[in-house]
Amino acid sequence: MVKKIGLLFGIIITLCLIPSTVFAVDFSIDQSKIEAFLQEDEEIEVVEEHTYQFEGKFNGMTRTLIPKEGSSIHDVTATEKGKALKVKQEDDTYKIYRRGEDETVTIQLSYIIEDSLKAYKDVVVFAWPFFDSSNETAYEQLDIFIHPPKKTEDVVAYGEDAAFATEKQEAGGVIHYAMGYVESGENGDITVAYDKSLFPSVSITEDKLMLEQLLATKQELMDKEKAFIQRKTMLEDISPYVLGAFTILSLILLFFAWRRMHVQKLELERTSESAYFLPKQEMSLPATIAYMNRGQIGPETMTAALLDLERKGYVKRDEKDKNTFIVVHEQTDHEHEAILINWLFYTVGQKGVFCTNDLQEFTKTTTNQDIYQRKMDSYQYSVKKEMADHKLIDKPFGIRAAAGLLSLIILPFIIIFAIHELYGNMSISLLYFVVLILFAITYRPRTLKGARIYKQWKEFEEKYSNLPDAEWETLVSDEQKRAFIYGFGINHAPITQKNKQLFENTTSLTYDSDTDLMMFVLVAAALNEQFDEVNSTVTAATTDTTISSSGGGAGVGGGGGGSGAF
C-alpha cells in the first residue's frame, strides 16, 4: 500500500514538473518600460522598451497586443538603437525579427491605440490592460507611465490585480505604475482619469458625471484589500491549529490502520502453519501467481497456465512434436482454464490442437489481433474473478471513508490559503489532501486468508531459492512441476536462477515421457517467448493514444497581451 502511494505521488510530481513548452528559447525580460501619451484628439501613442537577456540562439521577440472591444491598434513598429526591425503580424501577436545568440537586446516598440478613451461630462477615462493572464513571460521590472496631453495636477488613478496600489502621481499629472516584478499569467488593468477640459476634441461617450464613481471604485478596491489583509492575518493565526488538527486526525487514522495490520499479523502467527515445501493450493496456480504478482497477468503467467493444464491432464504434448499440445478433455476445475483451452486450441489452434508457432501465425492478420485481445481480456478477467471470489483483499469502509472525508474537509482550506497567498500553508494542506485521497483509494489490506496465502507462498519462494539439489530430487514429479510452474510464472530473478540451476544439474537423470522435466523446461521457454512477442504486438496494434492541447487567450471583453521570444 505504501509503495502504491509513493508511486502515484511520484507520478503526480513528475507530471507537474514536465515543462509545457519543449525546446523553447531560453530568455528573460529584465527591464520593461511602457509609456502611453494621451492626445487631445483621442489617439494614444505608446512607446515600449523591453530589455531581453538571451541564453543560446534566438530569432526574435514577440509582443501580443489585444485591443479592447471598440478600440484598435495600428502602426506597430520596432527599432533597436534607432535601426528599424522587421515586424510581422499574426492575429494579435507581432513577431519582431532579430537573430542572435547569448545577447542582451533592448528593443523599442511603438504603436497607436484608437477609440480607447471614454469621455464623460467631467472626466476622460483611459482604462487599459497592457498585459493579461494570457501572458506567458514574467516581467522582472515593469514600469508604466501615463502622460496627459497637457500638464495638470487633477488626476484620479488606480490599478487592479498586479497593478493595485502601484500608482503614484509625478510632476505634470504623469501617473507612474511602478509594478516591479510581474509574474506570468497575471492581470493588471490600469485606470486613469483626467479633467475633460484637457481633451476638447474627444466626443462625450456618456452624458453623466463619472469622477465620484471612479473615486468610489478606488475606495472600494482599497477596502477590499484591507479586508483581504485582515482575513489573511486571521488565517495566518489559525492555520497552525487547523493543520495541527489535521495532523492529529491523520495520525489517528494511520494508527487504526497499523493496529488492524498488527492484530492480523498476530492472528496469522497463531493460526498459520508453515508448509514443509509447497503450500496447500487453495487457488489455481494461475490465480495464485497473479495474486502474488499484484494482479499482473503477463506472458509468464499465461505460459504457466498452459503448463498447468498439461500437469493436470487436460492437455498433453504430442509424442512426435513436443511443441504441439492436444486437448485430452475439457471438464476443467475453473472457468479460466476452459477459456484458455477454447482460446488456444480452437481459436488460435484448430480442432483441439495447438502448436507454439500458431500464436505468431494467427496474429499476422489485423482482425485476428482484435480477436486475440478480446480472448486475452476475457481470460484475465476470469483469473481475477477467481481471486475476487476467494476474498483475499479487504476494503475496510470505515478507515477509507474517514480518509476520504478528511481529504474533502481539507480541500476548502487549500483553496482559501491559495486565495489569500498563504502558499506555505496551502502546500502543506495540499500534501495532506493528496496523501489522504490516495490512502482512501489505495488502502486495500489483505484479509486473513489473503495474508496467509501470501505469507506461505513467500516462504516457499525463500525455500525454493535455497533448496539443495539433493532435496529437489526427493520430491515427486507433480511437486517438481508445480514448483517449477509457480517459479516460472512468478518471474522473480532468484527463482528463475534457481530453476536454471536445478535443471542444469538434472540433465543426467532419466525420466519417462510423462515426467520429462527437461522437456517441460524447454517447452516453457519456447512458449513464453511466443506469448511475449505476440502480446507486445497485439497490445501495440490495439492501443490508440490521442494527445491534444489547447491554448489560452484574453479574458471576456478583450484587451491585454504579453511578451515572448522565438
Account of the 3D structure:
The strands form three sheets. Strands 12-13-10-1-2-7-4-5-6-3-18 form an eleven-stranded mixed sheet, with no helix packed on it. A four-stranded antiparallel sheet has the order 8-9-14-11, covered by helices on one side. It has a three-stranded antiparallel sheet with strand order 15-16-17, with helices on one face. The N terminus is likely disordered. Helices cover 46% and strands 23% of the residues. The chain has 14 helices and 18 strands. The protein is α+β, with helices and mostly antiparallel strands. The chain has three domains: 191 residues, Sandwich (Immunoglobulin-like), CATH 2.60.40; 76 residues; 216 residues, no CATH class. It is elongated and about 110 Å long.
Chain-wise SSE layout:
Elements: H1 2-17, E1 26-38, E2 44-55, E3 57-68, E4 72-80, E5 83-90, E6 93-101, E7 104-114, E8 117-119, E9 123-128, E10 139-147, E11 155-159, E12 167-169, E13 175-182, E14 190-195, H2 211-271, H3 285-292, H4 299-311, E15 315-317, E16 324-327, H5 335-348, E17 353-355, H6 358-362, H7 366-389, H8 397-419, H9 423-442, H10 448-465, H11 469-473, H12 477-490, H13 493-504, H14 517-542, E18 558-565
Parallel strand pairs: 1-10
Antiparallel strand pairs: 1-2, 2-7, 3-6, 3-18, 4-5, 4-7, 5-6, 8-9, 9-14, 10-13, 11-14, 12-13, 15-16, 16-17
Helix pairs in contact: 1-9, 2-8, 2-9, 3-4, 3-7, 3-12, 4-12, 4-14, 5-7, 7-14, 8-9, 12-14
